[in-house]
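Re: that chain you flagged

S.,

Sorry for the slow reply, it's been a week of failed gels. I finally had a moment to sit down with the sequence you sent. For the record, here it is as I used it:
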Amino acid sequence: MPVTIASLAATPYNVGAPQVINDVRATRGEHKMYQTADARVTITWTPDLNTTGMLNFGAVTDVNGSAYYLPYNDNLITSVRLPNPPPAGVDLFLTANMSGCKLFIDTIAGSADLMLYHANTHINPAPPHNSPANFQHPNAVAELTRLHTHAQNDYGALPAPNNLALANVAFLEKVTYYGQGTQEELRKFNQGRRLSYAGVMVNPEFTGGCSVFGFFNAGWHFYYQAWGAVDYDRPVTAGKVTKALFTGHWNYVHKARVEGSHHRASGENIKVVDHALIY
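Prediction finished late last night. Pasting the structure tokens below so you have them in one place:
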């Protein structure tokens, strides 16, 4: 069951955050530089037992594997160089799920290869309830940028001939990949939905993840896929159900009967909400 650009529209892929490949020591305590050959893996996808249609990532390191995998670490930035073209048999890149992380793509002067980075920070607490799904604290945004800038400098400081001149050509951040999740929150808000949290009614909340894939076909092309659902409480009363029956709102009636008042952001409700080209 290979991942394809077309399958990103319908199948949620949960990459999770397994280390999978051999870990490395962080340069300056914050930048893990993975060697290309060590990042090559053979992938298995298994159905998620609790989420309808979702496939979970698994892999083992394999010198003959068909993909490159880039892990992530809390409060660090990881990187790997993608050869262009890659060795025969390699046609996929992927990295750990993102839910606040930032992906950077750099070109390398004098080479067609690309440098990929996955930056993470927890310097700020989780956004408060009623924040849009794609909100990220400005200090966190600045920290992710700082991590990338210093990671670029790490490669530039390496001894020749590996002293690389890197230029950023694309990035993917939370404001983009959770943009549609935010629109889904707003749609439910405009329907009068709210969410009971610790006895207080707050705005509907999108819960999900973002997966990133690179496909090689006469060059590397990178896409993201955002998946998830909105957690909210629907008003369910005998009067509302009767009105819905009368007006033909059968979907509301079905969900009210099956789920009750609470719509869970889990199980069969998890869907692909967005997918798009990054670079």
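What I noticed first: The mean pLDDT is 88.

Talk soon,
D.
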